[in-house]
């Protein structure tokens, strides 16, 4: 009856020196995020917007979780 449903393996990579994080699906780079909202938008553009970004087991967060955006926090505390 066909192949079992394949679940995407999405990775939000560890922050770069500027605090941005690469978002990949397998070997494909979907985009570069500088904030959690960017991750949501990148997934929306890839038709993966049904995924709960902060709580999904489909997303592997490397180098910190969805609240870790080093170097950017001082800009949001005005």
Low-confidence stretches: 73-78
Which percent band covers the strand fraction? 15-25%
Outline type: globular
Average pLDDT across residues?
85
Computed structural class: alpha+beta
Number of strands: 4
Q: Which structural traits does this protein have?
A:
single chain; 78 residues; alpha+beta; 4-stranded mixed β-sheet; 1 helix; 4 strands; 13% helix
Question: How would you portray this structure in words?
Answer:
The chain is α+β, with helices and mostly antiparallel strands and 78 residues long. 13% of the residues lie in helices and 22% in strands. It has one helix and four strands; from the N terminus they run βββαβ. It has one helix at residues 36-45; strands at residues 10-12, 21-25, 28-33, 59-61. The chain has a four-stranded mixed β-sheet with strand order 3-2-1-4, covered by helices on one side. The chain is globular and about 35 Å long. Residues 73-78 have low confidence and may be disordered.
What is the strand and helix layout of this fold?
Blueprint: E1 10-12, E2 21-25, E3 28-33, H1 36-45, E4 59-61
Parallel strand pairs: 1-4
Antiparallel strand pairs: 1-2, 2-3
Give a quick precis of the structure:
With 78 residues, the protein is an alpha+beta fold. It has one helix spanning 36-45; strands at 10-12, 21-25, 28-33, 59-61.
